[in-house]
């Protein structure tokens, strides 16, 4: 079995407070699965970058890295930019298996959680 890590990959923003929910998700995953290596990385404006996170994980011996976009849906970044980033990382680390998961917002459980939140506001 290969050593697997998960990278929660968010867009990033100039406002440092923007990352707070992403950090909370990362902390919750770590709390619920302490043996799973989970990192948070950003496309732009914030650090670490995806490449920074991957370099650290590869250095720690991870052979399979699953990148989970913390995006509501597939947009230009996920259709164009992220595949190019992953291809570059595959060239740099041919021994590592990279997998790109679907945007988190497209998962049925997330859609239903958002719907439940909307309904709760209606009271």
From TrEMBL:
It holds the Pfam family CbiX. The keyword Lyase applies. GO terms for molecular function: lyase activity; metal ion binding. Keywords: Lyase, Metal-binding. It comes from the Bacteria. The keyword Hydrolase does not apply. InterPro entries: CbiX-like (IPR002762), Sirohydro_Cobaltochel/CbiX (IPR050963). PANTHER family: FERROCHELATASE CHE1, SIROHYDROCHLORIN FERROCHELATASE, CHLOROPLASTIC. This is CbiX/SirB N-terminal domain-containing protein.
């Amino acid at each position: 079995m290969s050593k697997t890590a998960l990278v929660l990959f968010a867009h990033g923003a100039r406002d440092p407070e923007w990352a707070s929910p992403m950090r909370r998700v990362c902390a919750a995953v770590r709390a619920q699965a302490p043996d799973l290596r989970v990192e948070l990385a950003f496309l732009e404006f914030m650090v670490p970058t995806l490449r920074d996170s991957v370099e650290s994980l590869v250095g720690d011996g991870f052979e399979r890295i699953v990148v989970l976009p913390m995006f509501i849906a597939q947009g230009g970044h996920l259709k164009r930019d992220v595949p190019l980033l992953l291809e570059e990382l595959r060239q740099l680390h041919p021994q590592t298996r990279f997998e790109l998961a679907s945007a988190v917002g497209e998962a049925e459980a997330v859609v239903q959680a958002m719907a439940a939140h909307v309904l709760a506001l209606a009271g």
